[in-house]
Amino acid sequence: MAAPPHKTLHNIAGRWTLNKSLSDPFTPVLNLQGVNGLIRSIASHTSVHLNITQPSPDEIHLQQTATGASIPAVTEDWILDWKWREGQDPLFGEMKGRARWIEIDKAGIGVEEAGWDRECDGGLLMQAEGNKRDDEWGGMHFWGFEVVEGERRYVRRIFMANNKTGENMSVRMVYNFDGE
Fold this sequence. Notes:
Blueprint: E1 14-18, H1 27-32, H2 37-44, E2 47-56, E3 59-67, E4 74-79, E5 85-89, E6 93-103, E7 124-132, E8 137-148, E9 151-162, E10 168-179
Antiparallel strand pairs: 1-2, 1-10, 2-3, 3-4, 5-6, 6-7, 7-8, 8-9, 9-10
């Protein structure tokens, strides 16, 4: 289901499901991150669900679950002040991350050319950076809304780099809105 007009990054709380037919394949990203083949295979056959809460406009909590698999749930807590925070991920171990609001036109090449809804959130995106604690790999995420196949959707564009192998890639993840 398309994102309703009242959903913005400043009001993103709700339930969302990854629309795999509109998204890029995510398995190559898991490979870049060193996730073993069995988990990659399982992940490619599951439904990915997000439950997002937003205690304040500058604080976003995201619980990601995969149905039909024994992949552990992932929690992302983002405070949009661009300060590094450390945490533990059940799949990747020790992580560090930071987040902020950024203007679309200042987000950089590959991001500003995307089909973002520039009217939404005053032309802002949410930018999040997450790195494996040992800096083996890292990712830059940009969250916003785009019109995808004629419908307004919540989208995460992710740019990943493996610092060991020099491999880089980007993916677009498109979500359906499931309700409040």
